[in-house]
Amino acid sequence: MKVLKLPALMAAVLALALMVTGCWGNDEMSSSSSSSSSVSSSSSMPSSSSSSSTSSSSSSSMEDSSSGSMESSGSSSSVAAMGTDFEEIGALPAKSLNWGPGGPVDEKNRSQGALQYNEKYGGYDALFIGPDQPVVYLTFDEGYENGLTPVFLDILKEKEVKAVFFVTYDFAKREEELVRRMIQEGHVVGNHSWSHKNYSELGAKGAAEDMMKLHEYVQDTFDYEMTYFRFPSGNFTEQTLAVAQAMGYKSLFWSFAYKDWLTDAQPGREEALEKIVSSCHPGAIYLLHAVSETNADVLAEAIDRIRAAGYEWGDPSDL
Q1: Backbone φ and ψ of 170, nearest 5°
Q2: Could you tell me which of 97, 124, 102, 84 has the C-alpha nearest to residue 254?
Q3: Higher confidence at residue 7 or residue 157?
Q4: Of 51, 167, 191, 236, which is the most exposed, with the fewest CB atoms less than 10 Å away?
Q5: For the segment 154-207, what is each residue's pLDDT rounded down to a tens digit?
Q6: How far is CA 35 from the centre of its chain?
Q7: Do residues 199 and 231 make contact, with C-beta atoms less than 8 angstroms apart?
């Protein structure tokens, strides 16, 4: 796909969105004094009422999770013909889609919902589960710092595992040294949005503006080019998937997550460890929240046990 240079690209997307929405809106982040708490709550994945055996998969731990049915509107087959014609983006479905398709697991312990989403939306450079190989990948969401990121980085260095750290503007601004350490130690820093707003409500223009504000900030501050994007709370539309793709981003979702983001209601150690290990599957993309004390406690053992089960921890920059 031909990629436009940033100024022309932004102008095209913003012009399109203005036609579509008829207004510019306001994507400014809240003041610094309140941003940490707002990100803390908004970056938390919603709880699920499901208590089925698939609770260890992404479907049972996502806020506002979908019912599991695949949406019929739109098709990834339209993406190939779209190229960089942004008028086509405005013609794509704008229906809000929540990550958490779930569904039963197959004989390889893979969520069938994740596999179907890969098939349906993969044409937008969106990935919900990795290739069918004994390789798994680790990702962290960093809405704010809870004093644990250095612990995770120490463990990853000891175990020789690379991860993606998806950062918001609030985190990148407040924790420059941690971001620099991530980069220096060979991890991937991913774009988790400027404001952590619901991208389905921002529309094409708002999504482009919010996404690229953080992109430019990280590029200017750290001399680092981000290429992976994670939608806040996993909420997306086909339009916003197409916008991310046009900006040169791969949208990276996940095939495992669990309720680990509530700092005052952490899961038990043994339960969490069992859930993480038993849910392993070929191509697993693990989402862990870096504010979790339980995750910090179990990560080293989980890495070892998953390796002992015959899996390799892959470099996410290869996804």
Answers
A1: -55, -45
A2: 102
A3: 157
A4: 51
A5: 999 999 999 999 999 999 999 999 999 999 999 999 999 999 999 999 988 899
A6: 20
A7: yes
